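Is this the right way to post structure tokens for a design question? Let me know if I should format differently. Anyway, here goes:
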């Protein structure tokens, strides 16, 4: 076979390799998005000036004097009402980021409602942030199926999550749960689905603070 007849094969081979590389990159990106969008666990760190410590149980905590203030978290709820988390200042707030499409969120929902019912008379307020649902109707159906009665802000684009400053205990996965102290500062965070036992373990120290 002459050199001239072999020459056209090289561009085809190059295009094939490039096409494979593109497919691999797209697949990897999709996998990373899936993991970050809905996972039953997560990682966090305490380096730099973050001042938080992550325990072996995956719960990160900050000492009372080193806590960052929670950002403005206000807007329409899943039910269409107006809600401002700052109105609950003076209470311990449990903030749960969830989506109706997220299996770990479904696994923890009934336990969250049970703990909410147990503690709401003791100065604890639960608030959800529903994110990445295409419509509020999907979120409302989820709440009805799981028996969730506390309010949830409707945040389909994740804009509320972006208000948390880097280097603080910010939500980085779905589900994420944060505990905000009576002064409106972020005391604890976890990036995983929680059992009732772990949720109570996360809330109790902040509730006990004077």
């Amino acid at each position: 076979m002459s050199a001239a007849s072999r020459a056209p094969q090289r561009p085809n081979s190059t295009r094939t390799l490039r096409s494979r590389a593109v497919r691999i990159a797209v697949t990897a990106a999709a996998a990373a998005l899936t993991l970050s969008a809905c996972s039953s666990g997560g990682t966090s760190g305490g380096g730099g000036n973050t001042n938080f410590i992550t325990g072996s149980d995956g719960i990160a905590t900050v000492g009372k004097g080193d806590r960052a203030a929670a950002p403005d978290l206000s807007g329409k709820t899943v039910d269409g009402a107006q809600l401002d988390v700052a109105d609950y200042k003076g209470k311990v707030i449990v903030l749960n980021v969830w989506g109706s499409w997220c299996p770990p969120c479904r696994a923890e929902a009934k336990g969250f409602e049970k703990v909410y019912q147990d503690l709401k008379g003791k100065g604890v307020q639960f608030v959800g942030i529903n994110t990445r649902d295409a419509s509020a109707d999907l979120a409302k159906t989820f709440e009805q199926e799981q028996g969730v009665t506390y309010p949830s802000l409707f945040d389909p684009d994740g804009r509320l999550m972006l208000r948390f400053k880097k280097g603080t205990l910010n939500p980085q996965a779905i589900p994420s749960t944060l505990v905000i102290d009576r002064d409106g500062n972020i005391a604890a965070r976890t990036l995983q689905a929680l059992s009732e036992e772990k949720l109570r373990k996360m809330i109790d120290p902040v509730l006990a603070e004077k």
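Format looks fine. Someone answered above. Worth noting: The two ends are 87 Å apart (CA to CA). The longest strand covers residues 124-131.
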